[in-house]
Amino acid sequence: MHLTELELKKYKKVSEAKLSLEPINVIVGGNNAGKSSILQGIHFSVTAAVAARQQGQQTFSCDFLLYNPTHDFSILRNGTPYKNFRGDNESLLTLKAKVPANEGVEETSYKIALYKGRNHGNIGCERTGDYIRLGSSITDASSLFSIYVPGLAGIPQMEELRAQAIVRRGVASGDANLYLRNIIYYIKKAKKLKELNEWFSSVFDNATVTVNFNESTDSHVVVKVSVDGKTVPLELAGTGILQVLQIISYVTYFNPKLLLLDEPDSHLHPNNQAVLAEVLQRISEETSTQIILCTHSRHIVDALYGQANFIWMKDGLIHDQGLEIEKLPILMDIGALDDFDKLKAGEIKSVILTEDRNTKYLEILLSGNNFNLQEHLIYSYKTSSNLEGASLFVDFLKDVANGCKVVIHRDRDFMTNDEAERISERIREAGAIPFITTGSDIESYFSTPAHIAHCIEENVEQVTEWINSLAEINHIQVQHQFTRKRDDIRIKLYRNNPNDCPDTLTLMGNGIPLSPDKRKGKYMIKKIRGDMGSKYGKQPDIVKNSEHLHDQTLVDILQEIEA
């Protein structure tokens, strides 16, 4: 059951806001726009409803609130403080969802109204609506309907074991950082540690988390994190790792209906922000958790644009919202176009739109082919399905930075030369310069035997033999990736004439292993990294520059840009 809509009235900065909801929802806006007020208003209302159900009465002491952002809750009302009577003096949260019905599904709702009780220190909470199908889930004290997560700044150095009820209350109060080791310990007790590590290693290659605690002898829970062959105590793990681990731990253990993330990009490097966005997409696809997050990060906006519902707020009101909201005005409003002045001043020669969320590989590849990254901007963009948007971006640049070129990167993805040329022509028609990779993807440049041999300082012939053996061992998966991509190409390029698409088996051939041009670079890099330690006893960085990253296509593109 996913919520379809929520409406919040009279809470902190928000006078009235009605949000249409999707699996992932991103609230954006400048400072003091009311972004955090939305998240806090949802969680404050939900936890107050939980307390009201637990106490079995409509008014009760504020001491029973699981979450209260201030010692005097009455000042949380928008405009004037709560007063001890109803009517216009309350704040109101309305939650709507579609539920099964006799003839399919129907929409139902549940309302939570908050006001000041007559006695000092009391809060009033009136709950109305569909209790059976919606309200009972929202107010269930044995589970957490919503989890509110402020940006992670750090965790304590040690944690004593706490009872599960205390941990649940701590998480509900917004102090989840203080209980992360406890949560991981209880995940292990619930036999879900393997599930957690599968999530964790899919984000950070070969990463694992372990927990040790003997209830008979130990006083503190010990959690260690292993990434890239290095094991450290949890408190010494990087902030990006902690942020991702924190979120996936909450989802694994509590399985909340709503995950409310308040600027989760805080303290994160841009590359880790892209990783975080991928994690949030996986959560929305693979679990029943719905996500609402607020951010002012360009990298989060770029990574989730086209995948999430955006809610653009100004002065406590919703200015615009939707799945296809214009991105450029949002970026300007949140101050994320930090290169806008450089564009207008003519300091930027090209804007490179890439379909990759993580731009690290592309940045190194461009540098290795004489691109001065101070003169070229890289933006993540959904190029394969939005050339019309790229054309609009080209027109925009003509107005503000005439002479600045637009380059659109598209992975080859096992396209034939004729197919790649068709895509190039479409990009040219949009007014941009096409960059289609020589291999399957950007990562394929970094998985060649020559580049790997250079990075690990080993013989190139032996490295070639080793990489071919990895491709042979994993032949079924490599083959599956090839055929799946060819199926995508058939759908996208041959929709009206599928019989014209070249036969997949003929293109693939019978060779084992498949030739390097038929291997997905992203996958091969994962296998190379995973086997490198046991094969050579070392784990050097392979995502770095070398003479073997030279690509004539990029050399020609640079000449075209500078011409």
Which value, in Å, is the CA radius of gyration? Answer: 26 Å
Q: Helix content range of the residues, please?
A: 25-40%
Uncertain regions: pLDDT < 50 for 5+ in a row?
Answer: none
> Globular, elongated, flat, extended or rod-shaped: what is the shape?
globular
Q: How are the strands of the biggest sheet laid out side by side?
A: 2-1-5-6-7-4
N-C termini distance:
56 Å
The biggest beta sheet, please?
6 strands, antiparallel
SS elements, strand count: 19
Arithmetic mean pLDDT: 87
Number of helices: 19
Proportion in β-strands: 15-25%
Overall structural class, as computed from helix and strand content, comes to: alpha/beta
Question: Could you give the topology of this structure?
Answer:
Layout: E1 3-11, E2 14-20, E3 24-28, H1 35-55, E4 59-61, E5 91-101, E6 104-116, E7 122-129, H2 131-138, E8 146-150, H3 164-172, H4 180-189, H5 193-203, E9 208-212, E10 222-227, E11 230-233, H6 239-254, E12 258-262, H7 270-286, E13 290-295, H8 298-304, E14 309-314, E15 317-322, H9 327-333, H10 340-344, E16 350-354, H11 360-367, E17 376-380, H12 387-400, E18 405-410, H13 417-429, E19 433-436, H14 449-456, H15 460-473, H16 475-493, H17 504-508, H18 521-536, H19 552-562
Parallel strand pairs: 3-13, 3-14, 8-12, 12-13, 16-17, 16-18, 18-19
Antiparallel strand pairs: 1-2, 1-5, 4-7, 5-6, 6-7, 9-10, 10-11, 14-15
Helix pairs in contact: 4-6, 5-6, 6-7, 7-8, 14-15
